[in-house]
Design a protein that fits this description.
single chain; elongated; alpha/beta; 16 strands; metal ion binding; metal-binding; 4-stranded antiparallel sheet; 8-stranded mixed sheet; about 35% helix; about 400 residues; Peptidase_M20; Bact_exopeptidase_dim_dom; Alpha-Beta Plaits; manganese; Aminopeptidase
Length: about 400
């Protein structure tokens, strides 16, 4: 079986770069990826790949059957959506849409999978079937969950499913993965501390919700330090505060809103965070003569890689760039990804590809206005997908 290296896909570099930069220039956010999905569908169809549209509004699935005998089916997934963010880059392919930007590299993810699809369609030397899954609305909205609810795996059953994401600050074209929990569960929470408010000069005549709110912001770190086992990892961060008016600082507000995010890797720690946040909010409010309204919303589950599929992904990455450029036991990351919903339904693995460090360019972090996907890794990512198909469906070996 032929090993596919990035050099073997060099003839695709200019085309993939043009596609990626065109998508970057025209970012579309959750469930609005009409132009992007049209590009994807037209490209797949032009390469002779069967195309299905409409799941989760703008989702696209391309299906390719190999020319060798085989019944196994795998899914390869890329996300398509952008973020609500004003780009500050000044290069020619910067966003032309105000307050929308491909600041997480989904333009690159989509393009890498398109590159693999084109190569495989030209030479489908494998047994079984590949579904190329182009997913909308990864950024905080859960497009993967919606695709599943609308029948993704009922219509396109997969024995395994795989995903990939770029990693700024990690060496260009290197890969990192681990079996088991790799990305965290992402939940949101909100507490509204309610009192009477009053005159800032006469706080004893009312109840002041700013006092328990301030204590709460400090105290919740005790949940991490004293309730979460030291062998586990978890994060509690406050991301929103709202109270009173800057125009009337002598008024004690009647309501204080404190909201944030929690991250965890196991069901036990996730349950603990939800319970202890509520207990702490209510007890601190009661001690100050106030009330606390508490809401906890479970958003994305932890992303857990299957052992077998992680091994296959490591093999495919080694075929692509060599074993010395593959980290098979990278530490877990407290970021989150809605590909976790797919891994709840099917065995699979999610891998990181290096976007480059500061000495290579591409050093700006994701979700920042100066980020850009590194076009030099487009053929590397495409080659990884091709090798993964060979490993899964044609028994290639490094």
């Amino acid at each position: 079986m032929t090993r596919t290296t990035p050099d073997l896909l060099a003839s695709l570099q200019a085309e993939l770069t043009a596609i990626r930069r065109d998508i970057h220039r025209h970012p579309e956010t959750a469930f609005e990826e009409q132009r992007t999905s049209q590009i994807v569908a037209e490209k797949l169809e032009s390469w002779g790949i069967e195309v299905h549209r409409g799941l989760a509004t703008t989702g696209v699935v391309g299906t390719l059957k190999g020319n060798r005998p085989g019944q196994k089916t795998i899914g390869l997934r890329a996300d398509m959506d952008a973020l609500h963010l004003q780009e500050k880059n000044t290069f020619d392919h910067a966003s032309v849409i105000p307050n929308k930007m491909h600041a997480c590299g989904h333009d690159g993810h989509t393009t890498m999978l398109l590159g693999a699809a084109k190569h495989l369609a030209a030479s489908p030397d494998f047994g079984g079937t590949v579904h190329f899954i182009f997913q909308p609305a990864e950024e905080g909205v859960g497009g993967a969950r919606v695709m599943i609810e609308e029948g993704l795996f009922d219509r396109f059953d997969c024995d395994a499913v795989y995903g990939m994401h770029n990693m700024p600050g990690f060496p260009k074209g290197h890969f990192a993965i681990r079996s088991g929990p790799m990305l965290a569960a992402s939940d949101s929470w909100e507490v509204i501390f309610k009192g009477t408010g009053g005159h800032g000069a006469l706080p004893y005549r009312g109840t002041d919700p700013t006092f328990p709110a301030g204590q709460f912001i400090v105290a919740i770190q005790g949940i991490i330090g004293r309730n979460v086992p030291p062998t586990q990892a978890a994060v509690l961060s406050v991301g929103h505060l709202a109270a009173g008016s800057a125009g009337s600082p002598n008024v004690i507000p009647s309501d204080v809103v404190v909201a944030g995010t929690s991250r965890s890797f196991t069901p036990e720690v996730r349950d603990l965070l939800e319970r202890r946040l509520g207990e702490m909010a209510r007890s601190l409010a009661q001690a100050s003569g106030c009330e606390a309204q508490y809401k906890y919303v479970r958003r994305y589950p932890p992303l857990i890689n299957s052992v077998e599929q992680t091994t296959l992904a490591v093999e495919a990455a080694a075929l692509t760039v060599g074993r010395d450029k593959v980290e098979p036991n990278t530490p877990p990351v407290t970021g989150a990804e809605d590909f976790a919903f797919m891994l709840e339904k099917k065995p699979g693995a999610y891998i990181m590809i290096g976007n480059g460090g500061s000495e290579e360019g591409g050093c700006h972090n994701v979700h920042t206005p100066l980020y850009d996907f590194n076009d030099e890794i487009l053929t590397t990512g495409a080659a990884y997908w091709v090798n993964l198909v060979q490993v899964e469906l044609a028994d290639a070996k490094a």
